[in-house]
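Ticket #4471: structure output looks truncated?

Reporter: J.K.
Steps to reproduce: submitted the chain below (200 residues) through the standard prediction queue, then opened the result file.
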Amino acid sequence: MAFISNGTTILDNGAFSVGLGSLVLISEQTASSSSSISFTSGIDSTYPIYKFEFINIHAGTIDSRLLLKGSTNSGSSYGVTKTTTAFQSAHAENDSYADIVYMTTGDLVQSTDGQRLITQGMGNNSDDNFCGEMFLFNPSSTTFVKHFIIRTIQNDKNPNANDSFVAGYFNTTSSINAIQFVQTSGNFDGTIKLYGIKDS
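Returned output as attached by the reporter:
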């Protein structure tokens, strides 16, 4: 049985035939004891904003971190210069402390290093993980630098609830057309999804 609205078939035999919103899934990758994940296609001028989702990222090595890197040559190299800022809100499981602090160890100043997605090192217990999102703005511009905003929540190595806020820009007027997420040490598991945001 089909559901038809204003002459357009929207639902037919349980399958949607029209878009259901502005968020369009472009690709999804699942890490399984992986040292990195790269998105080398799908980041272009189609959408003005791209969103990455990090789902249950689990480290194999304690005190490791997942890093962001960008490319202007479709992933042949990932050395684009970045300037960033970072702060965190944290609360210990045993209630021994809570804080909101600027993280000088989490920012970059005109650096080609990878940008930390989380401000504290990851735990590697079976239930340790982090989740979050990242927005990349107008990556195909050849006029402006490419801004990004990252927000993650983790149960870190200490253990704490650690809410990380990171923002900055790729300092290039070339198009950013590939993104890599790489572990500082060891491997990781989890899923990363890439979306385009329509009409933004």
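Triage note (M.O.): checked the attachment and the full token line is present. The chain has no helices and 15 strands.
Status: closed, working as intended.
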